[in-house]
Amino acid sequence: MRYMTSLRFIDVVAREGSIRKAADKLAITSTALNRRILAIEDELGQPLFERLPSGVRLNTAGELFIQHVRSQFAELARVQSQISDLTGIRRGHVRIASGADALRLFLPQAVSQYRSLHPAVTFALQRCYGESAEARLQSLDADIALIFAPIRAAHVHVAATVRQTMHCVMPDDHPLSQHEMIRIRDLAGHKLCLPTSESGIRQLLDTGLLRRATEIDVVLESDSFEFMQNYLRFENALGFQIPIALTELAEMGLVAIPLDPADVAPGTLHLCHLKGRVLPVAAAKFLDEIITSLRDNYGEAVDQ
After folding, report:
1. 135: helix, coil or strand?
2. Three-state SS at 236
3. Which of 46, 62, 276, 279 is least surrounded by Cβ atoms within 10 Å, i.e. has the fewest?
4. pTM for this one?
5. What is the CATH number of domain 166-265?
6. Distance between CA atoms of 136 and 138, rounded to whole angstroms?
7. What's the pLDDT tens digit per position in 154-199?
8. CA–CA dist 83, 198 (Å, integer)
9. What is the tens place of the pLDDT at every residue in 57-78?
């Protein structure tokens, strides 16, 4: 696997954008690392990096080569996972990109249940939204992505979807807390806590507000749904969430009431992986487990 070690060096330099920083991370000297890079460039007959005053940057040849490198790593992980399965002990490392919605409760439960059956499988979870999650699939930095937003990239394969109706979260003594359903016009005159624009929840809300021409009083914006939910314990305001992330509301003195779908359309949570990629066994089996869990929780709202 000595060849793979050299490829890993190239990958780390590309990610760090600096030979010195990469050398520190790899625990070798900058001189030794630079020699490795020059040797690979000499073998290829092309430089892979532009040398800049501030560091290094992949050139066009480097971009092509790094995609090959990451494909090699992904294929090796898949084969290693298959070999491990032959022993009857599932091993592997599953990398997931997800918005805050699924990271809050659904994925912790799913990962815990999977690891209770396969304790040799490890996980890495990264919070990111929409196009950023799609990019992580493309760069092979993620095996699976859960995206609550329209899928824009052709390289993304959607394995399953689940429809999610928007809910308005509030203290249980809020003036709107007795409503069975919240209309957009009901939000006027109340203080709102909104997620940032990267969130699919915010994008759906903005569309509904624009369509109904409703003026609102936004007192707080945050990319942390945990912060916003906790904030509602201290100020009589309104927040927003989808069912997959709703948790422990009664214990916090909060309630969640659905928004009228005529005002704010339900959104779609997409469960994705890179199109054409054969996932390692551990990731593929975890993907199946997630789909099963979604069906158990949301029934006909899940489409596969």
Report:
1. helix
2. coil
3. 276
4. 0.74
5. 3.40.190.290
6. 5
7. 899 999 999 999 999 999 999 999 999 999 999 999 999 999 988 9
8. 40
9. 999 988 888 888 888 887 777 7
